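Researcher: Last one for today. Full complex below.
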Amino acid sequence: NAGVMQNPRHLVRRRGQEARLRCSPMKGHSHVYWYRQLPEEGLKFMVYLQKENIIDESGMPKERFSAEFPKEGPSILRIQQVVRGDSAAYFCASSPQGQGNEKLFFGSGTQLSVL
Amino acid sequence: RKEVEQDPGPFNVPEGATVAFNCTYSNSASQSFFWYRQDCRKEPKLLMSVYSSGNEDGRFTAQLNRASQYISLLIRDSKLSDSATYLCVVENNNDMRFGAGTRLTVKP
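Model: Here's the assembly. Have a good evening.
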């Protein structure tokens, strides 16, 4: 059973380009979370999704950022018109459906560098 | 007030020392609690869940005080390999929130 898969591991973009980060949750997991981590800082919650639904996007900037988790395929975090301040590690995590005391399983993250 | 707050750190301790981390949370309806460990530039990994009765896993002991909305992690006989950032996590209806983390460095 493969773990949470994120790709790419490293992504370099120039200012103004678009960044697409992909996350395939563990098999059987229908909850996906995206977090951002700036250098020397903690994980900041961005968005929580279930299949085809955004449950909580309170941590995601209103502009330029969007996320989806389609019925088929990975979850995508999209950043349009990237700026230098978007440079960070973006972690995806998944958890099983509907149980209390859920544990999160993390992917290895995508390191986004904006030139 | 932040949803989850942790000791600022960093903690620098000698091998064999006992060290304790604290965490407070703002949402009294929170249901589940965890400690995660994150090594530099790596993904966070679950260290242990935190139960109301308190629980122990080897050198690690976690405590929960719902009335005070407070969680703690105690590490006894610390090892060099315990050096990492420790993240407090609070869950409410599948919505997981992380503290900023406390950095621990164990020195020879």
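The CA atoms of residues 31 and 99 of chain A lie 11 Å apart. Chain A touches chain B through 25 residues (CB under 8 Å).
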